[in-house]
Amino acid sequence: MSSRKLLMVLHRVLWLAFVVQVIASFVVELPYPYWVGWLPVIVAMILGAGLSRTARGRVMATPRATVEVDPPVTGRWSALNSPADRTPSHGTHQLGQTYAIDITREDEAKPRPGFAWLWPVVRRSEAFPAFDAPLLAVADATVVHAEDGQRDHLSRNSLLGVVYLLLIEAGARSIGGSHRITGNHLVLDLGDGTYAMYAHLRRGSLTVRPGDRVTAGRELARCGNSGNSTEPHVHFQLMDGPDLDTASGVPFTWRGVGVPKNGETFEVPRGPVYSA
Description:
The protein is α+β, with helices and mostly antiparallel strands. It has four helices and 13 strands. Strand 6 and strand 7 (194-199) form a beta hairpin.
């Protein structure tokens, strides 16, 4: 295990230790002064800042050329949190997210529900046009990681939902590790030290498993709402390694589309989809 991986595990353990003792303090009197209980979270915050600086330094020190791949979807979509507007696109270089993009499906026959300030607090995944949309291989590749056992939760696209996500759920998922943040996800080895990661997949939708060889355009899974997600959408990124905890982001461009900006709508022609 690399030193960076060990530090990330330690970071999660420190946060977990802090949470456990906070819960325990409501039941028993802790056998040490109050200020001692804050040491794990203080060290965790310092360690987290250091990991973020290290991740940024790795991206800046070893810049990669932009890799062109096929789009992972077909039909009409719009972009969110795009690297065309800023990098890192998701506010962090960690988990290989420097050039990550989120996209959501647009369908005139089934409009995407907007943000709710008061009501409804949550919506079912089926209310969103992106849910269950097929996700395709962006190139000929080998599957190196695939999991889809986590549930698709209700939406978090309301004021109360976002507050809950930011203050409670996101922290709990961070302690649980990268696979709790990405939810159901898969990683493809595209060759030449480049890997593609698809996150927030629908539970039980994977059509591949580690070791499978896939061709560009083959259906791999379906869009879902698992992990740290406000609504069903596709999170896609390229990175220089298969391990999210140690990988750095790699810039991409989608063939025929480019890199859409935040709010930009784009359409990918519906070509043949290969299921095997």
